[in-house]
Amino acid sequence: MKQKIGIVGKNGRLGAALCRALADTYEVLPFGRRELDLMQPVREQLKGVRFDLLINAAAATNVDWCESHESDANQINARAVGELGALCAERDVRCLHVSTDYVFDGLSSRPYIEEDPALPINVYGKSKRLGEELLLQICPDHLAIRVSWMFGPDKASFVDWVLDQALSRDTVSAIDDKTSSPTYSLDFVRWIRPLLFELPIGGILHLCNPGGCTWREFAQWAIDTARFEGVRVKAREVQPITLDSMSSFLARRPLYTVLAIGKFLETTGLSARPWRDAVQDFVRKKFSGTQ
Known about the structure:
By secondary structure, the chain is of the alpha/beta class. The chain has a domain at 4-156 and 182-209 and 259-272: NAD(P)-binding Rossmann-like Domain (Rossmann fold, 3-Layer(aba) Sandwich). Helix content is 39%, strand content 16%. It contains 11 helices and 12 strands. The strands form 4 sheets. A 6-stranded parallel beta sheet has the order 2-1-3-4-5-10, sandwiched between helices. Helix 1 (13-22) links the parallel strand 1 and strand 2. It is globular. The relative contact order is 0.15.
């Protein structure tokens, strides 16, 4: 009999990838907002639903929305996480929760490790940090996995926006003074497999494609890859803009949130391809229709 894994956030970029990838080995129980509303108490909604592991890939991730909806952001990103963690602990089941690089203030001069102080500077980051704290206070065997700049085939991301702009416009601009680590959803679902049951570690873990880049560098590499694959783009060079020039942004953004993944590599013995290789794979599949 297959082990059962509940996946919260089935319609998201990562949740959809997890549901698809893990279905070959496990019995996947997918939860979207209709099946599990994180704005409501989760206990009654999961009454009678049995699983051997729960992955929470759901979150309120719009940084500016969170800034103007603090109570709702805290409910989805923190209180609901605590409720899920408590329910899992009562059932002697581990909970793997997806968190974010935005728990950091962005003032570091080197990639962040798991032990670095989490000092978020906006409501989104604070709510996600509170979710981590509630989860691990309830049970230290639970695992909070921090990711950053997620992209993949299941839901449009920054990379898709850049490529669409490059195909239809003569100019594309992207922020050039904010740096982080891209995370390819298809790589993530491969990396996470040994952490499910084989290596049931608890605490906090960073997981992303190695290396760091600015939004502009991220965008430029996607366009360069598309051109190499023979895609005729109108915009070839990404113009740099500053974070301060984004007058529409309501919330502050940390300037540097590159994540170090040495702990993951040492724990699992796996390798992780650099972000440029991951972007190449995504772009090639996108334009060849093999996603």
